């Protein structure tokens, strides 16, 4: 994949929810343009390695688990080469006894992987030959402990990740794209004023009471407060407190190809009633995300002509911050220094939605 693909590297990406990877499973993913095998041994340990056999280029995910010296290895379906969960080649069946070749000198990239709160995160390096190791951990969902997501919904968008992220943090499209009986339309638009501040690797819309025209929050009851964070490369976390309970909505945007992006909406909750009713809300999640997918497909029809686009004040300031953070992330990596967040200390943004 071209290094000018616009994908951030040396950073954590959401890959998949852990319960989608059963023991003994090998799953092919493309994350930030890199083919990744996300697997789980029969003992339950998750791992991630580059999904290309270096012999003839066959995806290792098309193979199967076999035991090699009492350790789980992935066997390529073409010539039977076996790779450990650390990416090191453990066995080449075609070698004869005494042949002067050491299989362990061959390896595919092993990607750092974390399984937390039921989600699998993969760290994607910029240099596959000499990969950087993570200096920080993936984001944690606040207030929910080690609980996994109660429900989640995934969609594929036919657009570059930048356009998907801008749609994710754009506060003005809702009344026009998400016209539903359970959401507001343009007839209910009001002026909003929200305070923003920088956080580690992103920014936050400081905690506040939801707007009066956001009807869905009223279903939570009690004294409701919401705080919305955005973290690069593409993670939006909405932390809602309602009385003593917490509800967290995590939306992740993971690039797969130049014009393909995977978006996943996940909900976590400490409220037992909401957890019981959660499956009822999944069709609404599907409908909501499909509207975003549909507008992304429509947008591609215009983007084919490579038009000059614009971001305006103040409703598009968050988009401008996103591009500034991306540029600073790349500069910091190139200069070998820590990331310096370009988001200003305190900003009040106004718009109508």
From TrEMBL:
Cross-referenced InterPro entries: Cholesterol_7-desaturase, Rieske_2Fe-2S, Rieske_2Fe-2S_sf
Organism from which the protein derives: Candidatus Phaeomarinibacter ectocarpi
Keyword DNA damage carried by entry: no
DNA damage in keyword set: no
Protein name according to UniProt: Rieske 2Fe-2S family protein
Entry GO MF terms: 2 iron, 2 sulfur cluster binding; metal ion binding; oxidoreductase activity
Lineage top rank: taxon: Bacteria
Domain Rieske: 13-122
Keywords annotated in UniProt: 2Fe-2S, Iron, Iron-sulfur, Metal-binding, Oxidoreductase
Phylogenetic lineage: Bacteria, Pseudomonadati, Pseudomonadota, Alphaproteobacteria, Hyphomicrobiales
